[in-house]
Fold:
Amino acid sequence: MMVLLALGLGAACRAPAAEPPRAGAPPPAAPAGGASASAAPAPAALQKIDVCTPGVSQGFSGVAIAQQAGYFAELGLDVNIQPIQGVVCTQALSSNTVQFSGSPSTLDVIIQGVPYRILYVSQGQLGHQMAVAAHVNGWADLRGGRIAVSALGSPLSEGLARDILRDEGVNPDEAQFVALGLPSNRLAGVLSGSVDAALLSAQEVPMALNQGLKTLPYKPRVSLGSPMTATLELAQSNPDLVQRFVKGVLMGHLLYAQRKDEALPVVARWTEAPDPAYEEQVYAIMRPTWTPDGMLSDEQQRGVIAATREAVKATQEFAPDEVFDFRFARQAYQELQAANWHGLWPK
Structure:
């Protein structure tokens, strides 16, 4: 609540921003009082918006690159990225403290009836890995074993670990889950032998590999990776703003995927990464999970909805368009492709 109050006060103190000029709009009238006709016009004010992300990671490279490389500014936006705790990030949309949220938990509240819409998804496949001790050679070896997760009962830690075990033919009730919090604690548990495995995000996996641990391969899983969500009201009342924001994110998204040498230095500045080699390792894990166009297919959308309904024990059915709104991403992708933006579509 203190975080929300602080963010709300910051938003309240900000002067309302002017809308950027539309293409084809008439030029502004000359100022009264005999001002010189040759005087340069004042630059248009950028429209200020706020975005929250549940942390700083390569999953949000699309937003970070768009901000750092000036793509948002090209589209008339001044975007402030606020890394805050995931649940608070989700709730901040309702109060308009932020206009866009990057928390995956927004899907949970949509399924529970909150009128949000997911506009963009950076990753369509799960990037998490199960790091295991030397004596574990396959998933069957985790029967009766101890698995470290960040928090018990969390859909993104214990719930995800259970789903992966189930997919690989292991009854998750045959394993014991241990909450060890931070990734360093989970890895220390595997290295010390107090646990047999630890579930890690793509951002954390290189920590395990660099300490000599291995990971178990598993069947690809559809994922809602680092999405961008807005309220239904914003999407309906200000589609121009939403369109420009999504286009900027997609510009960063495409640069990350297709121009690694240009993108990684920008991302490293945003994350304040001390080790470029580590960021290269994270990129190698993240890149295969990246969506080509910031969207999920209809089948992927239905799969994500079904998994979330099961996790939150929702009985109501949801059509994809009640959860996702990819119109903005689709239009942005078509515009960028038609312009061969950054030469990404060689003729």
In short: Confidence is low (pLDDT under 50) at residues 1-38. The longest strand covers residues 116-125.
